[in-house]
Write a structure and sequence with these properties.
Structural class: alpha+beta
Number of strands: 4
Order of helices and strands: HEEEEH
Strand content: 25-35%
Largest sheet: 4 strands, antiparallel
Distance between the termini: 44 Å
Number of domains: 1
Number of helices: 2
Oligomer: single chain
Strand order of the largest sheet: 1-2-3-4
């Protein structure tokens, strides 16, 4: 059984990011959780430290390559109402 995460775990994680010179931002998009948003080359991480002691981790990876302006149009086509 895994020990629930605490505020100390969050602080240690932030300290590790600082020591590695990895930029991060904090937000609270979910009730009862603090999200650490990290952007590194080719990836974006979302790590949520929840009040109940769980930690959620999502990693988003780049498709790679550099796209032209036509790619911008396709983003709007896919995600606009």
């Amino acid at each position: 059984m895994t020990t629930p995460a605490t505020i100390d775990d969050l602080v240690r994680f932030l300290d590790r990011l600082k020591a590695a010179n990895i930029h991060y931002a904090l937000s609270d998009p979910t009730t009862g959780a603090i999200m650490v948003e990290v952007a590194v080359p080719g990836e974006r991480w979302e790590i949520e430290f929840h009040a109940n002691g769980t930690i959620g981790v999502e990693i988003f990876m780049s498709e790679g390559g550099i796209q032209g302006s036509d790619r911008l149009d396709s983003l709007f086509e896919r995600f606009s109402d």
